[in-house]
């Protein structure tokens, strides 16, 4: 995946006009600041003292067994898929712990009703910046779409693209991008986005309340 991303970036650099090729070509990243997650199918045979992980060795994938030590996991907890984490120059295998908690209220009360509605949101699309779908589920588990709301803010999208284009033009003129480049323009663009999404957040809450839908309000309160 990383090699594919680099190759596509390098091909774009090759296709750039000569006047834009004074920059250095993109190079392979030498260090990575992320912890690889091993999903199901990438690990096996975890007995509490050792685990077999699927790792890329050279040009081929191989199963490699690793020994580890960890405290006993209580019976009510279950280990999830591991991840490899770099800490103080050493590799650590980290397991998330999961625990089943029976529902006592909230969603359990909603599911007990004959029908309930949910509001599904698709945001920051090309044509419509928000599409809200009102879904109704009956006691048999059948879900139907009862309404759909479209929010088309072409003026906001055009203004965003114009501001980003102005920043790109400045980048093309300078040739060297230093830290804090076009800070005023970036801060202005960020402030406009935060203000706009706050207004949109309020409008989506009104739609969900009007449609009597169940919606996680915390989803909208996150900055975009």
Question: Ranges with pLDDT <50 over ≥5 residues?
Answer: 216-224
The figure for the number of domains is 3
Taken in chain order, the helices and strands follow as HEEEEEEEHEEEHHH
Q: What topology, given as strand order, has the largest sheet?
A: 1-2-3
**Average of per-residue pLDDT values:** 78
List its salient traits.
single chain; three-stranded antiparallel sheet; 224 residues; disordered C terminus; 32% helix
Q: TL;DR?
A:
The protein is 32% helix and 27% strand. It is α+β, with helices and mostly antiparallel strands and 224 residues long.
Please tell me about this protein's structure:
The strands form four sheets. This protein has a three-stranded antiparallel sheet with strand order 1-2-3, with no helix packed on it. The chain contains five helices and ten strands. With 224 residues, the protein is α+β, with helices and mostly antiparallel strands. Residues 216-224 have low confidence and may be disordered. The relative contact order is 0.08. It has three domains: 1-27; 34-101, no CATH class; 114-221. The protein has helices at 2-14, 107-111, 154-174, 183-210, 218-221; strands spanning 43-44, 50-57, 60-67, 77-79, 83-87, 90-94, 97-99, 115-123, 130-138, 143-151.
């Amino acid at each position: 995946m990383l090699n594919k991303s680099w190759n596509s970036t390098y091909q774009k650099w090759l296709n750039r006009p000569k006047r834009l090729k004074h920059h250095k070509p993109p190079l392979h990243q030498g260090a990575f600041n992320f912890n690889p997650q091993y999903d199901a199918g990438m690990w096996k045979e975890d007995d509490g003292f050792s685990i077999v992980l699927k790792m890329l060795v050279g040009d081929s994938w191989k199963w490699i067994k690793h020994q580890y030590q960890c405290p006993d996991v209580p019976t009510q907890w279950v280990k999830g898929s591991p991840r490899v984490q770099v800490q103080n120059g050493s590799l650590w295998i980290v397991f998330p712990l999961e625990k089943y908690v029976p529902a006592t209220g909230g969603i359990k009360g909603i599911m007990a009703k004959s029908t309930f509605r949910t509001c599904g949101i698709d945001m920051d699309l090309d044509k419509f910046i928000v599409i809200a779908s009102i879904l109704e589920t009956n006691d048999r588990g059948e879900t139907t779409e009862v309404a759909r709301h479209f929010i088309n803010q072409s003026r906001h999208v055009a203004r965003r693209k114009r501001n980003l284009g102005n920043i790109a033009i400045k980048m093309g003129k300078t040739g060297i991008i230093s830290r804090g480049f076009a800070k005023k323009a970036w801060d202005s663009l960020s402030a406009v986005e935060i203000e706009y999404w706050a207004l949109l957040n309020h409008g989506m809450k009104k739609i969900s309340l009007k449609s009597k839908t169940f919606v996680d309000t915390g989803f909208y309160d996150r900055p975009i």
